Amino acid sequence: MAMVVFCSPTSTSRATGTARFLPTLLVYAFLVLLLLIGSATSDFDHLTCSDEEDNDGLTDTPGAPVCSSQDRKALLQFKSAISSDPNHVLLDWHASNANCCSWTGVTCDGATGRVVRLKLYNQNLKGRLSPGISDLSSLQVLILDDNDFFGTIPSSLGTLESLRRLCLSNLPSLKGPIPESFGRLKNLELLDLSSDALSGPLPSSFGGLSNLQALYLYGNNISGTIPASFGLLSRLYLAGLSSNQIEGRVPDSFTFGLTSLVFLDLSNNKITGLPKDLRSLGSLEYIRMSNNPLMSGDSVEGIATAPQISEIHLSSCMIKGPFPAWVSRLPQPDTEYISEWVTPSLDLSNNAISGEIPPALGNLTNLQRLSLENNKLRGSIPTSFVQLQSLQLFNVSYNNLSGKIPQASPFTTFDTSAYIPGNRGLCGHPLGPCKS
């Protein structure tokens, strides 16, 4: 089963031994592409705002009846709010062309002639979003990504109760709050408001989005805490909320209803912690909390209770003190049941973790990436690490480790950048020989 995820880190190769993270937007785009490549077998193809072949279940019907006068009026009102159309994409949108079902970007229902899809992505359109869109009462898909719309999102969009996909991403001049009225969109499966300039709190009304499966809000200025009502989103499997100003602890309500959640990205915020018990999140495989500088090691110990957790990112979280004890209690899910886009990983880099590396980490034999660089670790690399035969990326540079590097695969395949700078007391291949 293919899924699309956000913000998965990538390394250059095993030879470098260095974890390099691509910018969020590039990784998002790359993973959407992966989903599209596997679209023939995916159950979630309709949950992307893609510029490829539509996967929303709607098709153009030759000879469809003339669109309703209500819809034609609403579309002309939308056009009247456009101040610039350099690609002339709306050239055929005019009153004398009565059949708006034939207009560029418009798809109608073959039986009723009602507009069910409006798709005008990446057309360099500039203007305000017309409230008249809400008069397209049968609209199921609205995709206006990658344009130059400005102003605020009309609250009247919350009346489009048939809407399943709402895509208003990459609109950097779109400001203001997310309308509370969006909580009335009971049929919404995908909401993408990423990479805009939205501000204000997360609407508590989102708890009413009972069919929501994918939520993309990354790259805005959203502030405040996560409403407890988010725990009602029982069908949500993907939550991409990175790069905002969200603060406080993740509410305990997350553990009550988010039983479908697979992917959670809260990186680059002001989150202070997670619920202590995540056992009810039996589907959770990927969590990214990097760059939340107000957290501590104990505040995220609930991660170890998530039975299927496989990819963990806690880089640059100001975790201090001894190696978090919960890391030694991490589960080891069967790789047969891990999603194909998940890479079993543990990233605790760029913190202030001190003391020795626990030997119990060597029991995570499915681990493919282990990033511990730029901490205050001392002691030796545990001999138990020779059990990590699946390891493809390993980095402990910028620490105070000493002793002999395990002289077995895969550690003999990593180059010096996996171990230095730092760690002046380490020896053995690929560094210099140990003194007898």
Automatic annotation (TrEMBL):
It is found in: Membrane. Residues 69-109 form the Leucine-rich repeat-containing N-terminal plant-type domain. Its main location: membrane. The keyword Transmembrane applies. Keywords: Glycoprotein, Leucine-rich repeat, Membrane, Phosphoprotein, Repeat, Signal, Transmembrane, Transmembrane helix. The keyword Glycoprotein applies. It comes from Ceratopteris richardii. The chain crosses the membrane at residues 21-40. InterPro entries: Leu-rich_rpt, Leu-rich_rpt_typical-subtyp, LRR_dom_sf, LRR_N_plant-typ. The lineage of its organism: Eukaryota, Viridiplantae, Streptophyta, Embryophyta, Tracheophyta. Pfam families: LRR_1, LRR_8, LRRNT_2. SUPFAM superfamilies: L domain-like (SSF52058). This is Leucine-rich repeat-containing N-terminal plant-type domain-containing protein. It is a single-pass membrane protein. One of its GO terms (cellular component) is membrane.
